[in-house]
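Q: I have 285 residues here and want to know how they pack in 3D. Can you give me a structure?
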Amino acid sequence: MIPEPKKSETFEVKRTIASLLCAVFLTTATTWLPAQEGPSTAKAKLDALEKAYKESMATWQKEERAKIGSWKEAAKKAKADGKDVPSMPAMRMTPPKAIIAKHVKTAQANALEYAGTDDAIPFHLWALRYGSRIHDKEAVIAAADALTSTHIKSSKLEEVPLTLSYMGRLIGQDKAEAYIHKIEMNSPHADVRARAILARVTNALQEKSVDSMAYKGAKEEALRAAGMATSAAIKAEVKGLIDGRENLVMGKVAPDIVGVDLDSTAFKLSDYKGKIVMLDFWGDW
């Protein structure tokens, strides 16, 4: 005969069954819960920010085009009725500040969420760029302060110096240069320091006379940046800047451009030596 279970054993069996049923219920219930919506990573949030900005721009442009469409219809009708054609409505050439400001605030909120990590850098950079478009000096300075202090040791700052070089009109040239100098002096990463040097001297390389002391000093600094850089892109950029000023000038032999013509035939510029050549540079976007 099977012995009758003791009361304590019966209690344990019931408790085990109850636990199993509870686990099954919780597992099943999980499938009933709605999926979490919205981006959950910094990259996803950055993509969402860019998407939202583009959508805002598309909506604004559509509204501006609609104004012209309505005017054309009204003008056509007025002309047909023998009435005065209404004046063409003024169109905005730049979006309202409020549209961009909304997205700058989102970037700032995301930067705060990832404060102290490299994930915050793209959001600070976004606020820096787009904050300057709406002349939001406070947003620009806040982003620049964070990038050159909290994140000064990061290897992710290569884009920052050049962006800062465009901020002079808004925050003052001295302040913009001070931020760049801080990166150059304090970053432990050679490529970031090289980018900071180029941000300082590119303007002189592009605009000063090649015979001037300003150009020669800028060239020396650019070559120093290329020498310290580990990035092939930085080295090529420096070479391109210098070659563009010193070799692509009147009186110099043109580079031997190589390409393929519309008939898929390979050619070199030197093939046409002694002939008149017209170069037509074009593009589409």
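Q: Anything worth noting?
A: Strands lie at 258-260, 266-268. The chain has a mean pLDDT of 87.
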